[in-house]
Amino acid sequence: MYTDRIEEYLETIQYLTSKNQAPAKNKDLAEELGLAPASVTEMLQKLSEEGLITYTPYRGVELTEMGVLQSNKIQRKHRILEKFFVEVLNMDREVASKEACILEHHISELILESICTFMNDSGMCKQPPSNSPIECPTSMEEYIPISDMDEGDEGTVVMVTLPHTVKGRLVSLGMTAGVQITVKRKQKQGSISILIRGTELALGNEIASKIFVSPGVSADHRQRSRGSHS
Amino acid sequence: MRQRSDPKYDKSIAFVGNPSVGKSAFFTRVTGVGVVVSNYPGTTVELTHGTIKADGKKIDVVDLPGIYSLGAATEDEKVSKRYLLHESPDVIVNVLDATRLERNLYLTLQILELDIPVVVALNQMDAAKEMGIEIDVEGLSRMLGVPVVPTIATKGSGLDEVMNLAIDAHTLSSDRIKVRYDNHILHATEQLGQEFPGVSNGVRIRALEHDADFVHMCCRPHDADMLLQSASLLAIDIEQVHGMHISDTLSRDLYGEAGQIVDGVTSYVESRSTLKHKIDNLLTSEYVGIVGLVCALLLTFMLVFKVGGFLEGGIVMLFETYLVQPARVIMSGSNPILENIVIYSLLGVEAGFAIAIPYIGLFYIMLSIFEDSGYLTRAAFLLDRMTHKVGLHGRAVIPLVLGFGCSVPAIMATRTLNTRRERRIASALISLIPCSARTVIILGLVGTFVGYWAAVSIYVLELLVILVTGWILGRGLSGERTGLIMEMSPLRRPDVTATMKKTWLRIREFIYVAFPLLIAGSALLGILDAVGVLDVFQTAVGPFFTGLLGLPAFAATALVFGILRKEMALEILAVLAGTASFAMVLTPLQMYVFAVVTTIYIPCVATIAILNHELGTRDTVAISVFTVVLALTIGTVINHTALLIM
Question: Most buried of A187, B239, B264, B488 (most Cβ within 10 A)?
Fold first, then answer.
């Protein structure tokens, strides 16, 4: 997970410097990353040693040319993945961006280029659109299927990966993206029942495992997880 | 574009609403015509018509199966959709459940897009009050732009007002709510409206969603194709802009509107029914729930057998003394064919009453209580995992349980299942479930003359047969597989009058379906018997029968009668054996084999008829042949194994 951390630092520094048009402050960086300033300082020293950033005490940090290159590489990965998720997999843009935030650190060039070929869109892959900065939330809560929730858990539905007819049935029972649900009862490996729009809905395990929620928080809370919208 | 419905009537009013909102109770109150009311989704499986007269006008009132939206998926939902679009009623009475307003409004908003006058009945106001929900009825009416009347259908309050408003409703009000769809959608529907004037907004929206079924139902074929074509071009653009499926955009906007309405008209005071929550949690907890379910089922069967058996004896005695015996006396000496026709028909009616009233009646009383209290959906929830082993999901529990009463309504109830695959599996299994008629044989023959545990072992055997069959069908049958998606009915105290009414209606339904068959079949057998066909059959099949099953030849004839009604096999056996004390003419093994074969082999005539109606000839023949082969095989195995051991 070490490269993960480095890439995350680079991205955040780029985000902060472009936002403030000034070197990123140590304190701001710690806040964005949700870490203690001391551990940030330690990491920044390492990055500086590797020649990715220039660190001026009391002024802040900036990316070196090499740092910018590396950061751009990740951003390119992010954009291609996001585009793939939205256009080919029909995912919601916000969800796609979030998933790209996780995958961007792990995906190889080989897979990335294969995606480009598959999408038949080499132009985008050479020069990904860079109209807005990408932001990834630092502490990523992953989307989980309803079947993984426990009694009393709350969540916001983000995506349903079921065939069209089944999805239509769920929609008519109130299941749409963005709706708030609470798990009322759950059987071991069995069916689960949820409270949704004032009604109680029983779902079999095979259905519940295909409905994904953002756990624990309400919709307005969700706005905080910074997405990269155009 | 719209056809007038039946010209015999001055007006037609359709009742539309979500399942289990009290729609049928409402309808029954209004028309006095019997429909079955239920607290689990999907009992009103066919259209029920009633007639009311008001101001010298004859009005056709129709109760549609409950639907959640106009994009219907199950068989009974399609029936509703087809009626609304094809027959186009003059007025719609939309029944809403005040305790689940937001979800109910989703359908309401869709209905309001059809150009049909609507009156909204806001039902379950008592339950809403109990839950601490307060609704500003006038505000709701203002927002929707149609009349809204608070009602309590089970008590009859508010019903007259709803009907008066519906009868007087003629024109569409102009201030009817318009859903604030996304701008692109609004623009597209406007454009479609210019191209296709006279098509309601609802149809345009559904065309954008590319619901070809829907559009074809309400437009001429050519227009429908043109409309769909234009709409799909617009839809592609909209989907590109939004980056999401157009259905998702539409449902988001509809629910958004519904949510805003609910926020505007409801307020919550503290609810006080925590006891209900505790009971509810207990009923569906892992262990207590299952134990409770088993107890509830055992109790039901105990009650049905004890009380039912007692009542049956009384009914048979009454019939024998006052009808059959006098008839025998009167008919003796007349033409033997005529005599047989009369006597056999009377016997058919006798057996019909002896089964229908004590067993089916009592069973349905218990079932109604389970349904109306909301317990049945909880049972379905609990059993979801188990039913998966037989290729079904939990919702199928409802028709399967019905099967213990009578296969006919049980097979009709499979219409609420989502796919044809599920309906086929469920129907095949229902044909094997020991219905109350088969129970009579198991208990009357084996239970009485062989022993209690022997009778129980037949049930266990049956259960095994059902499980294995289900397991094989679940593996082997192709088709779409879905999972459990079921709304849990709220827990409610069952109403005594509603329960009795429902039971009566179900008995009546059974009488309507089964009695003509019983009488005709019995008479036919009477003729066959009188002209000697049965003797020929007996001589031909007898040896084969004795060899395989070890049963006397006349038992074969009894089995033929059993096709008419299962329990008739036992009665005929008594007639042919010349005594009802079977222990004198049959060995315990013979009785056991006879009971096993009768319970499994070929469904009765009424079941065959309904199977044919629901699934088609191929499946019916397959099920019939399968059960006959299965019964003979199992019977032979039991007979020969027992003979070897003994």
Answer: B488
